């Protein structure tokens, strides 16, 4: 199963919990991606926190998360996000 874990106000709300969750997913053969609306230039903290824990960090640069993942050939089965609206909608500039 492929899971998307949002960073801001999801992972950052309880990193210890999410680290345990990611470890459990990995142990059970699931794949966790961090999919964030941030741009790569805004991603230093995301990379520091998650680079060694998740399969890939995907920066959508304010584009909707579903389409960015689809364009990369990644099909997400479960989206974990504090604002699920952005799974299918771009952020307003």
Description:
By secondary structure, the chain is α/β, with parallel strands linked by helices. The chain has one domain: 3-Layer(aba) Sandwich (Rossmann fold). A 4-stranded parallel β-sheet has the order 3-2-1-4, with helices on both faces. α2 links the parallel β2 and β3. The longest helix is centred in the N-terminal third of the chain and has 13 residues. The model has no long low-confidence stretch (mean pLDDT 97).
- The assigned CATH architecture is 3-Layer(aba) Sandwich
- Spans of 5+ residues with little confidence (pLDDT < 50)? none
Oligomer: single chain
Radius of gyration: 12 Å
Instruction: Specify the biggest β-sheet.
Output: 4 strands, parallel
Q: What is the residue-mean pLDDT, rounded to a whole number?
A: 97
Number of helices: 4
CATH superfamily: HAD superfamily/HAD-like
Q: Helicity range of the residues? A: 25-40%
Give the CATH class. Alpha Beta
Fraction in beta strands: 15-25%
């Amino acid at each position: 199963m492929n899971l998307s874990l949002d960073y801001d106000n999801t992972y950052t709300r309880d990193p210890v919990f999410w680290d345990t969750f990611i470890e459990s997913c990995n142990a059970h053969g699931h794949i966790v991606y961090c999919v964030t609306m941030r741009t790569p230039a805004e991603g230093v903290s995301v990379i520091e926190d998650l680079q060694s824990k998740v399969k890939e960090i995907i920066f959508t640069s304010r584009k909707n998360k579903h389409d960015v993942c689809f364009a990369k050939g990644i099909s997400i089965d479960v989206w974990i996000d504090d604002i699920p609206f952005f799974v299918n909608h771009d952020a307003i500039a």
